[in-house]
Amino acid sequence: MQGHLQSDYVNTILYFARIGTILCCLAFLFSPFFSHASPAEVEVWYRRALLASAASWALRLHQRLKTSNAGFSRATLETLVTEDAFHYLVYSIIFALLTPVSVSLMPVFLFALLHSTRFTQNLLDASAPQRNEATGDGPDTNSAAGQPSYLRNLVQAAVTKVNTNNEPILRLIALNEIMLMVVCIFMALSGPRIIILPFIYYPFLKMRYNSRRNPYSRLAFYELRVSLQSMACHPKCPGFVSRMIYGLINLVSRLCPTAG
């Protein structure tokens, strides 16, 4: 396992940044219940989670640009803006600098969880007992040491569970991105300190809608539209509610960019 970590140090750093993001998110969520930390101390974990997320996305973006072997040009910048890593680098920096919005940690946490499972699986494979190709036996097939530990089995089960639910998790992230816009609007109406939040968040949501690699934001918008139209057409839906729904749909349709 140590050899695997040392042989790919960039992905190793990226992996530990994502693990740090996960741990900081959990600390922010559970520290009020298990400690007497003040709100300011709890807020530290919130900002640490976002900074760790920003670091991991920045490193991932560096990998993407290095792989493309493209020089600095307008085409490179246009490609950069369509990268998920750029979107969430901007996202993490925005929410790290502004008043805490707890639900903003959900996509950060879920992406870190998704992206860390592949490297975790590689570590599990690297640490597995090696079989002897000539005899078919492992090094300690008759000893307890040769058997997978309870912790290893637990981690393997968790990795498998996450991998099998990859698409539902991505759909949940996309839905959270949209609902977060609603949260930003309500928070802007509740206090002058974050009145600019919806205007800052809207460009991020446009970038997510136009994402090349992740179609789930567009899919989530479409599914929400179908659900709202179905609700508005229901015979029991009051007329004023139906008009409000169609007005909202028309407004969002005008604001939605054309997918690139």
From TrEMBL:
It is found in: Membrane. One of its GO terms (biological process) is endoplasmic reticulum tubular network organization. Pfam families: TMEM33_Pom33. Its main location: membrane. The keyword DNA-binding does not apply. The chain crosses the membrane at residues 12-33, 88-114, 178-204. Belongs to the PER33/POM33 family. This is Transmembrane protein 33. It comes from Paragonimus westermani.
